[in-house]
């Protein structure tokens, strides 16, 4: 990261060698699903640095090739990049929406929506609730045999305290426009996406560890061969045999999906290997297993929207959850499919602008609504 910072500063001052300029352009053309903030000097405004870098690089950019530069070599693509291409065009296209520019309707500047932040509601066994974004860091109380600790903004953990304590259930609810991380009492890590809830016991006892999911979450399961981990999401149950996986079960999506990143899971009588996805259709209840684009599935956790031949309604459902907006159609969505990615750290107007530039629909914001126009 320090090497990249030094390279950017030398380039902006006109002191970079030809080899360094070439390296910087290769980094700029690169894209990786793991996102790294743009390095800035102490006291330097990141947005101003982004714009200065864009102004210098943009005029000499060549049409990018579809390629991946090794992540370790140039520290990956920075958060300023918004990358979207319409399926059917060759390669990926760079787009550079300025955060300061009013690129939507006249009222956009006043109503623009920031990206999701770290907020959640914890419901205790007695039905009382704690708003975690308002709670101070540290101990929040005790539930059953576990202490509840708010570790820092966006992170909640359970720590075993009393092996004989009662087993009670808590629910962590992340609203639209939010995200949160949870450490369960067995050490399992869970990342919760927007519009998601997870119900879980405050201690795991008996023959299994079981939680109930609504929405989308990524799990890194603590190993325990004698006590299998299970995730129930509506009509799909995933039996975890030591693994990392993503599960998506939103009420407004047509399927429930479980995607295996590493290890092994079982869905019904099917064993998945890494890179596979179990898909349960809510109409007809048919379960299929297929190869998955893991990078696309994991993009939300890594700070990106990634589209892989996705239609506009599917994209807008994801945007609605992330920015906590309602989508209103005054025109039918175009038939184009999208591929590429956009940073989730951009404001709503910038994301919609990128979609406008690459599709046939236009958008305007009206309070908490995004209106789809011809």
From TrEMBL:
Record domain Protein FecR C-terminal: where? 305-372
Write out the GO MF terms.
sigma factor antagonist activity
* Stored InterPro entries: FecR, FecR_C, Ferrdict_sens_TM
Location of the FecR protein domain: 171-266
Pfam families named among the record's database cross-references:
FecR, FecR_C
Record keywords, A-Z: Membrane, Transmembrane, Transmembrane helix
For this protein, the record's PANTHER family field holds: PERIPLASMIC SIGNAL SENSOR AND SIGMA FACTOR ACTIVATOR FECR-RELATED (PTHR30273), PROTEIN FECR (PTHR30273:SF2)
- Protein name (record): FecR family protein
